[in-house]
Known about the structure:
Elements: H1 3-16, H2 21-28, H3 32-39, H4 47-56
Helix pairs in contact: 2-3, 2-4
Amino acid sequence: MHLSLLITQIKERRAMLQLTQAQLAELSGVGLRTLKQLEAGQANPTLHTLAEIAAVLGMEVVLQVKKNTSL
């Protein structure tokens, strides 16, 4: 999944839950500046950061092995 699609999903879910960026930042333990940069597409978040945000939004980050990949 591309980061831009992930950002869109986070923003849409936050809006659906009627959370402000400040509220999401506080609930997830992620800095407000980091969250604002993420939603603006100006951040390179860690998996931990994404997982913390996703958990508050009732989402999860999942890693999968691609089908038909060879080493």
